[in-house]
Automatic annotation (TrEMBL), chain A:
Family: Belongs to the ABC transporter superfamily.
Pfam families cross-referenced by the UniProt entry: ABC_tran
Organism name: Chloroflexus islandicus
Protein name: ABC transporter
SUPFAM superfamilies: P-loop containing nucleoside triphosphate hydrolases
InterPro entries: AAA+_ATPase, ABC_transporter-like_ATP-bd, P-loop_NTPase
TrEMBL record, chain B:
Presence of keyword Nucleotide-binding: no
GO molecular function: ABC-type transporter activity
Origin species: Chloroflexus islandicus
Presence of the UniProt keyword Ligase in the record: no
Protein name: ABC-2 type transporter
């Protein structure tokens, strides 16, 4: 049994001068929710298209569910579901007819199809409105319907390209809740792209960070956090440049940022904060509170982006 | 494969019939009224007896097929449903032929419906107690030529729709093509020198109706297969997304 749902090696695709996907080596395990994180234009959508055999790669290898792509992409499409860049719903048809069409496409027998449509729409709270034309629906409802369509034929793996894009925070949270419930119940592997870090933190077991087509890091959130130094936050007053300089001279300190009443200190390694507090006080700073915090994924993300930026120049 | 083709066809027809806009429906009714009632009523018995109506029956499906085929791919692209369809398990050929056959079924189905209405009309108004029907050669011609001319419109329509930037552009290109197909021969003949016209007329009037029908069917069949072949070559998933 293959434990990887997706594996790519040195996958590359260019559009003229643009390297949309650049030597991407990626591993997604069976059963996990994998978050593919990157800013706009970083190559997320292109990667999904390559994985589904909708675009030809220029170089590199792809294996999805143990099947080589693009050689046998039809088999991959048979066993996966997708919510792509656009929801892809027929707006002039009803919700039920949209699902019915895709149920027929996957050759589900009528009874199973109807039962499954009922099950999915009911669990998304959309069953009562199944006969309405999709064009009258809100964006959040449409995205949920598109997720139902992706899951309809019980695929082993689904691709979700920015499922919460364009949703307000409440609709996005509701969609994430439904998504998590469904995914747990169905035991399906999810490859999800997003540029929203909070979303990845809430939903994903593992993430890959991509920028300009290149993979900067991949791993579990804990691994990525460990990859980064610990952070220390002090709240107080008089965090003068003098204080900052003093801190920066310490070997344990990697970076210092004074921000009004907040002093952010990035540590090179986990270490005792007491000597640092003392140092601040000695240099005239007044400390009211001290917090230790692991880097949020956001900081990891931004740091990686910055490192990459520095590298490029 | 047939199941997959039928799945696509079914949904295309569902959209074409349920959801056509009002202008489209009005045009459809106008067409059915003209060719089912007005013309048969006016032309009387020559509606079934004269082979000239064959020309009409080769035109009607062009308009009807054109009304839906422009939307086939350009519409899905414009409304952002194409890529999701391409990401499904459907084979390329099922998508292509599902759409092609849906346009054909719509156009030719409605053409044949008008044909039947026309037969009812003519028998009601001009029947004089006996059943009026097409002579065998004309009947074969009406059915065969309308089917193949529908196929021509569907094949060309799918090709244009695949390449078009928008539904509007596809509709424009196809409408111009149909106009050209109808007007160039009609006015072209009139523009020929009188001597040529006469010579041509002598050749054509030498044919009997059956021969003429068979020649027309053969020519149309060849054109159909060329267009369908071209559409099959053109329709490839990876190319549809990249362009
Ligand atoms: N068909 C195409 N033709 C030309 N360039 C393309 C094409 N598709 C993608 N690109 C380019 O490839 C790069 C990556 O695009 P892609 O859509 O994969 O990014 P993305 O990460 O999905 O971005 P977003 O968050 O905006 O959806 C971009 O620079 C884009 O302009
Ligand atoms: Mg994208």
């Amino acid at each position: 049994m293959n434990t990887f749902a997706i594996r790519t090696q040195q996958l590359t695709r260019t559009f003229g001068p643009v390297r949309a996907v650049d030597q991407l080596t990626l591993e997604v395990r069976q059963g996990e929710i994998f978050g593919f994180l990157g800013p706009n234009g970083s190559g997320k959508t292109t990667t999904i298209r390559l994985l589904l055999g909708l675009l030809q790669p220029d170089a590199g290898q792809i294996e999805v569910l143990g099947v080589p792509v693009p050689q046998r992409a039809a088999e991959v499409r048979e066993r996966t579901g997708a919510l792509l860049e656009h929801a892809g719903l027929y707006e002039r048809l009803s919700a039920a007819d949209n699902l019915d069409y895709y149920g027929r496409i996957w050759r589900m027998p009528a009874a199973e199809r109807n039962q499954r449509i009922h099950e999915l729409l009911a669990s998304l709270g959309l069953w009562e409105r199944r006969n309405e034309q999709v064009k009258t629906w809100s964006r959040g409802m449409k995205q949920k319907l598109a997720i139902a369509r992706a899951l309809l034929h019980r695929p082993q793996l689904i691709f979700l390209d920015e499922p919460t894009a364009g949703l307000d925070p409440i609709a996005a949270a509701s969609l994430r809740d439904d998504l998590r419930t469904l995914v747990e119940r169905e035991g399906v592997t999810v490859f999800l792209t997003t540029h929203n870090l909070a979303e990845a933190e809430k939903l994903c077991h593992r993430v890959g960070i991509i920028r300009q087509g290149r993979l900067l890091a991949q791993g579990s959130l804990a691994e990525l956090r460990r990859h980064e130094a610990l952070h220390l936050e002090m709240i107080g007053r008089a965090f003068t440049p003098h204080v900052v300089t003093a801190l920066q001279s310490q070997p344990a300190v990697k970076r210092v940022e004074a921000n009004g009443a907040r002093l952010l200190i990035e540590l090179a390694a986990a270490s005792d904060p007491a000597p640092l507090v003392k140092l601040v006080v000695e240099h005239g700073g007044q400390v009211e509170e001290v917090h230790r915090s692991n880097a949020s994924l956001e900081e990891v993300f931004l740091t990686l982006m910055e490192e990459e930026e520095a590298h490029a120049h | 494969m047939l199941t997959d083709i039928w799945t696509v066809m079914r949904k295309e027809l569902q959209e074409a019939f349920n959801l056509g806009d009002r202008v489209g429906k009005f045009g459809l009714l106008f067409m059915m009224f003209s060719f089912g009632i007005l013309l048969p009523w006016q032309m009387g018995r020559s509606w079934v007896e004269s082979p000239i109506t064959l020309v009409y029956w080769s035109w009607v499906p062009l308009f009807l097929v054109n009304a839906v085929v422009a939307d086939s791919f350009a519409g899905e692209r414009e409304r952002h449903t194409l890529e999701t369809l391409l990401a499904s398990r459907l084979p390329d050929q099922a998508i292509l032929f599902g759409k092609l056959l849906a346009a054909l079924a719509y156009g030719v189905g409605l053409t044949w419906a008008s044909l039947l209405v026309g037969l009812v009309t003519i028998n009601l108004f001009h029947g004089e107690g006996r059943l009026l029907f097409y002579p065998p050669a004309v009947a074969l011609g009406v059915i065969g030529i309308s089917l193949l001319s529908g196929g021509l419109a569907a094949g060309a329509g799918v090709l244009v729709s695949l390449r078009a930037k928008s539904v509007q552009q596809a509709t424009q290109v196809l409408s111009i093509a149909i106009m050209a197909l109808i007007f160039i021969p009609t006015f072209g003949l009139q523009a020929l020198p009188a001597a040529w016209q006469e010579r041509l007329w002598n050749i054509v009037s030498g044919w009997n109706v059956t021969q003429a029908v068979l020649v027309a069917i053969a020519v149309l069949a060849v054109l159909n297969s060329v267009l369908i072949g071209a559409a099959m070559r053109r329709f490839q998933r990876a190319r549809l997304i990249a362009d």
